[in-house]
Amino acid sequence: MGLLRTMMPQKIQLLAVLAFGVAMLLIENQIQKLDEARAKLERTIARHEVVEVEQRHSEDGGGRELSPLPEKDDMVIIYNRVPKTASTSFTNIAYDLCGKNHFHVLHINTTKNNPVMSLQDQVRFVSNVTSWREMKPGFYHGHVAYLDFSKYSVKGKPMYINVVRDPIERLVSYYYFLRFGDDYRPGLRRRKQGDKKTFDECVSSGGSDCAPEKLWLQIPFFCGHHSECWNAGSRWALEQAKYNLVNEYLLVGVTEELEDFIMILEAALPRFFKGATELYKTGKKSHLRKTTEKKPPTKETIAKLQQSNIWKIENEFYEFALEQFQFVRAHAVREKDGELHVLPQSFFYEKIYPKVN
C-alpha cells in the first residue's frame, strides 16, 4: 500500500505535465490559425480596396482622356527595404507624414515575404505603380528585390531609395528577432520562439540560422530578379548590385547614419519628406522597432564569419554603399557647432540669350 501511495502522486504529476504540454500545443496551434486568418483577412481587405479604387477610376475617368498630373504629383518612390536595417523606423516616418504632405503610402505584402516576384506579378506590379493615378504621389515599401522598370515598356520610372547595414550586425539582429521579436509587436509569436541558443552558440555549433549563406541578402536585394543574384558569393551579383545602386537609386543610406539619410531626403524631396528630420529627432516613433534580448557576438564569432567568402563580398558591397553615401553627404550638408545643416542651392543661371525686351 505504501508503494502504491508513493507511485500515485508521481503518476498524477506525469499526467499533469502531459496535459499541460498538450494544452500548450493546442494553444500554439490556435494562435497560428488566428495569425493565418488575420493575414488572410488583411489580404482580402487590401484586394477590395484596390477594386474600389479601380471602380471609381472607371466611373470618373471612363473612356475619356485624362489630363496629365502636375509634375510634383506624378511621382513614385519605391523603398525595397532590406530586413533588419531600421526599415520600420524609417517607414513609420513616411506614414506619419503622408497626411500632412498629401501623398500615399502602400505596403507591398508578398506571400511568405518572398522578395522575388513571378514574371506575371512583375508585369502587374509595374502596371499598377505606373498607371495608378489615385495613388500618386506614392511611396511603396516592402521586402522586394529591385525591379528594372525599363524592361516593361512603360512611361516613367519610379525613384528607388534604400538603407543598408553592416552585414554581421544585420544578421545578428535578424537571428534574435526570429526568437524574441521586438518592441513593436511584443505579443506576436515568432518563428523560432523558444530557441534560447545565443548567436555565438549557433556559430560555434555550425547552425543553419547563422551560416555565412544567411549573410547573402543585401546584394540580391539590389541586384534584382536575375537568377545569378541569388547565387550566394557571386561576384557578378556584386557588380550588378553596385551598378544598380549608383545608376538606379536616388539615395542609399546606412542604418548607422539614418538621421543623415533622412535629412538629405528631406532636402532633395520635400514633396514627400518635409518635416521628416524634426519628426525623427522628436517623434514618438523614432527608432521604434528594437530587437529584444539581442546579445552582441564575441570577437571570435565575428572572426569566424569574416573568414567566409560570402561575408567578404557582402561587406565589400556595404563598404561601397557607405563610401557612396558619405560622398553624397559631404556635398549636401555641413557640420556647424555639432549640428548638421543642409547646404543652400549652389548654382544659378546667367548669360541667358536671347534677351527679353
TrEMBL record:
Coiled coil: 24-54
Membrane topology, as annotated: Single-pass type II membrane protein
Protein's cellular compartments: Golgi apparatus membrane
Major localization class: Golgi
SUPFAM superfamilies with a match to the protein in the record: P-loop containing nucleoside triphosphate hydrolases (SSF52540)
Keyword annotations from UniProtKB, A to Z: Coiled coil, Disulfide bond, Glycoprotein, Golgi apparatus, Membrane, Signal-anchor, Transferase, Transmembrane, Transmembrane helix
GO cellular component term of the entry, any: Golgi membrane
Domain of life where this protein originates: Eukaryota
InterPro entries the UniProt entry points to: Heparan_SO4_2-O-STrfase (IPR007734), P-loop_NTPase (IPR027417), Sulfotransferase (IPR005331)
Single GO term (MF): heparan sulfate 2-sulfotransferase activity
Residues passing through the membrane, by range: none
Similarity remark: Belongs to the sulfotransferase 3 family.
PANTHER family in the record: HEPARAN SULFATE 2-O-SULFOTRANSFERASE, HEPARAN SULFATE 2-O-SULFOTRANSFERASE 1 ISOFORM X1
Protein's UniProt name: Heparan sulfate 2-O-sulfotransferase 1
Organism: Acanthochromis polyacanthus (spiny chromis)
